[in-house]
Amino acid sequence: MSAPARWAIAVAGSLLAGVAISFGQTFAPDWLSSLFNSAAPVVALAAAASLAARRLPGSIALGAIAGPLAMVGYYGTALLRGYGVSSSFFLMWVAAGAVFGSLMGVATWALRNKAPVVVKAAAAALWPGIVVGEAAHGLTRIADTTSVAYWWVEAALGVAVLAWLVARRVPTTRARVLAVVFTAIIAVALFAIYGIA
Q1: What are the start-end ranges of the H helices in 28-86?
Q2: Which of 11, 107, 165, 180 lies at 20 to 30 Å from 122 by C-alpha?
Q3: Roughly what angle, to the nearest 10 degrees, separates helices 3-27 and 40-50?
Q4: What region does 170 belong to: left with phi over 0, alpha with psi -120 to 50, or beta?
Q5: How far apart are CA 116 and CA 110, in angstroms?
Q6: Which of 78, 88, 101, 93 has its CA nearest to residue 21?
Q7: What gap in Å lies between CA 103 and CA 123, rounded to an integer?
Q8: C-alpha 174: how far from its chain's center?
Q9: Percent with pLDDT over 90 in the chain
Q10: What is the pTM assigned to this prediction?
């Protein structure tokens, strides 16, 4: 498949994911509704979109635009469905999507290509750290209004992805230990950010 075709699919997929999030928030069953209100799938979307690029700048660019495009799809669909949209929330999530999407672009590229082992360790830790930190927030701060089972599944998925990435993409034992440490640091940092947001 040509590069323009891959990029077009990544862009269109990001917009459509935003549309799906809007409808998912309305129609998903209670046990699954948190999926459509969490950052983990949007950051995963950035990683998936960045796979369409072969070089680092393209991977960063696709990661950086995937989250914002998902927010355009989400908020645009919400407006068309008659829901109010906060411009401050829109701008905040677009900015967060660009920042974390860029990081996921770097991480995805580093895990697929030659990079220093410390970079590979940090790359392997990024998404699992976000997921585990978000799950901890869900379990400790909003468990009374959301599905506890969902947060446990999200936490388990984060750990499973970390284990898979460490086994497949991180080459040394020392770097694998670092990946676990980086995951914990990212999870704690995200948990703290959620606490003040």
Answers
A1: 40-50, 56-80
A2: 11
A3: 170
A4: beta
A5: 8
A6: 78
A7: 9
A8: 26
A9: 80
A10: 0.92
